[in-house]
Amino acid sequence: MTDVALKQLDRIYFDPALAAIEKDFQASPILQAKLTHSLALTLGDFGNYPKALQVIESTLARQRKLLGDADPQTLDSQVLRGQINQALGSLAQAEHDFVTALATMRQHLGSRHPLTIETLITFGEFLLGESKDQQAFEILSEAVNAARVELGNKHLETLTALRLFGVSMFRSGRIEDAEKITREALEGFRALPDRKTEQLIALTSLADIMIALDRPDLAVTYGQETVRESEHLYGNKHQVTLGMRSCLASSLSQNGEFAKSLALHREVKSGLYDLFGADHTFTLKAQTQFGVSLRRAGQYSEAQKVLESVLVECKCRGSESDARGIGALFQLGLLQKEQGNLEAAERLLSESLNAQRRMLGEAHQDTLATIAALKSLRDAPAAR
């Protein structure tokens, strides 16, 4: 949604709604805080994150004064503030909110309280997004165990925890376990009404698993299903549809269908630029995937431009050492290696490895992949 449209919504709906809540519910401040919490949530749904942050900040301050730090309403608002900060790219602030809220929940509500389980899932998904995979594995394992006991195997929160835990297993190299648990989540989502988005995300995870099992044909089949469903549900320009198309484009590349892959990547790029701009996390992730597909297709010059543009945007955001910047560095190193520029390849891969060891740890699959690439490079006859 454009800035102009957001300003019109503020003027016509959100600003009057906030003023009415502040005026009409002065005698019921706890209810007033509930209503402004809901308003912040709606603002976030519409993509107006700066305004949402302002509203949730004032809501949280009011709840802490009225209810204390350990009240479930206060904690729920703290988690929402973390989610809004995450959407704004303020990742350190977001993580702080998740960690402190979760610690308070465990102490005062217990590890199996529904809000604790929900927050474990939210935090686990955040950690996966930041490639903090060992932490994510531990948090999501706790979430799955608590949800199975407290909510049952068919509950939405349990299924969401299972899906994310499947991603965590996949990243830790437990591919067969990841497939089993992801299929369990998918079948559970299919049994629930109005959970098409969750089904699509689980199918996308299965596509990634098929790539790891050397079945890119099945990955393409799953990817095509997700794109068809997302176009039907959301239309061609929605961020969910664009995300599904980006995943399908990568699967097509893995399957050797380069012309289809690159055409689809270009469509995704245009759509994400229109929605979010060049420096958004979604755009940077899709651009890295585009660069990988260009490299696989042998279009090295354009691949280099695309991957270098990701690094530039990450540096402008001050996030060149996050998952997106590290991924672009690694892919640039592979690109130089494939072109025979071994000195440049070693420099880029070494820089990537240093960042991965610092941010991801020695045992992370991306770290191990970079170690293997450097070993292959240094063992090559031309490197001696």
Quick summary of this structure?
Helices cover 82% and strands 0% of the residues. It is an all-alpha fold.
Can you walk through the features of this model?
- The protein is mainly alpha-helical and 384 residues long.
- It has 18 helices and no strands.
- It has helices at residues 3-24, 29-45, 49-67, 72-87, 91-108, 114-129, 133-150, 156-171, 175-191, 196-212, 216-234, 239-254, 258-276, 281-296, 300-317, 323-338, 342-359, 365-379.
- Helix 14 packs antiparallel against helix 15 (300-317).
Give the end-to-end Cα distance, rounded to a whole number of Å.
Answer: 55 Å
Largest sheet: none
Question: What's the multimeric state?
Answer: single chain
Instruction: Give the SSE order as H and E letters.
Output: HHHHHHHHHHHHHHHHHH
Query: Uncertain segments of ≥5 residues (pLDDT<50)?
Result: none
- What's the rounded overall pLDDT mean? 91
Helix-strand makeup class = mainly alpha
Percent in strands: under 5%
Number of helices: 18
Secondary structure layout:
Elements: H1 3-24, H2 29-45, H3 49-67, H4 72-87, H5 91-108, H6 114-129, H7 133-150, H8 156-171, H9 175-191, H10 196-212, H11 216-234, H12 239-254, H13 258-276, H14 281-296, H15 300-317, H16 323-338, H17 342-359, H18 365-379
Helix pairs in contact: 1-2, 2-3, 2-4, 3-4, 4-5, 4-6, 5-6, 6-7, 6-8, 7-8, 8-9, 8-10, 9-10, 10-11, 10-12, 11-12, 12-13, 12-14, 13-14, 14-15, 14-16, 15-16, 16-17, 17-18
